[in-house]
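Dear colleague,

Following up on yesterday's call, I've attached the two folding results inline so they're easy to grep. Please treat them as preliminary; we haven't cross-checked anything against experimental data yet. The first protein's sequence and structure tokens come first.
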Amino acid sequence: MVYHLPAGSSKGDHNRFRWRIHGRDTSSWGGKYAYHRPGFLDGVPHVLLHTGIVILRPEDGPALLEIVKAEGGEAVTRQVLLERADQRALAAGGRRPSRASGGARNSR
């Protein structure tokens, strides 16, 4: 799925959009209490290829599409042929960043 907000959207709209999908790291008391507020992708197996480009299981796609549309975004979905590493990542419930985004450096 490829998703984005329309051109001309405010920075606040972009932030809320990104937080709802990806979650966000936040803290209080000057960084003393740091935690992650989960977003949609934190709860589903996925492969994040690039900002706004994600591979999901077919059963998870409609839920993300609903979030994107509820936030005023646009999305395009396609079926793709996965590499073995992507298949393993989705089957294991984990996430695997693409090699183009830095590979293992960004993995959990």
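Below is the second protein, in the same order (sequence, then structure):
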Amino acid sequence: MPEQLPLVERIREAWINHLSSDLLIAAGIIVVHGVLVLLSGAGDLLGDASPSDRRGVYTSAAIVVSLLASFTGVAIGQLGSAKGSRAKALKSGAPLELARNWTSIFRWGLFAALLAVFGLLVDPSTHTDAVLPVVARWLFEAGLVTAVIKFLRAGSLFRDVMEITSRDAIDDDDDKKHAAPIISERWNRAS
């Protein structure tokens, strides 16, 4: 009988295997936060912040999310250059799922950065209850929460890729290694 994974690992595996769960988790967080703000009138961190502070948050978020999106490129490069039987099995076993995961992570990172820039553009430098700035704040929050969840996914996938490449590097079979060729002094002379 195969060994049971710990509960946390089973939850992680279920999450990794269901890409749409990211959006459900983000929507749940935003809905709960919105209900708390509506019912209590408190907890709207962006709405209660001064306009200059909000603009600072938008700017910082755009920069950080863009940097995290570039991390996705590093992870994809690591997987692409991985060699060994485990890496080959991962690449050939689920190439479409891997592509969907990495593409989703990258796209949501860029989308969150665009929402931050949108927030910068439409959020005025004064306190207001106008509809567009309020919608921009909530869209920004939704994009940021989703991006954070996507980057948690990226970290989790990157951990797997690093584990696979490390194990493949360690498991190089000594029997399969060949002696280095003997190079004569004439190896680089023109024939």
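For the second protein, one point worth flagging: Helices lie at 7-17, 21-40, 45-48, 51-81, 85-93, 95-122, 131-170.

Best wishes,
A.L.
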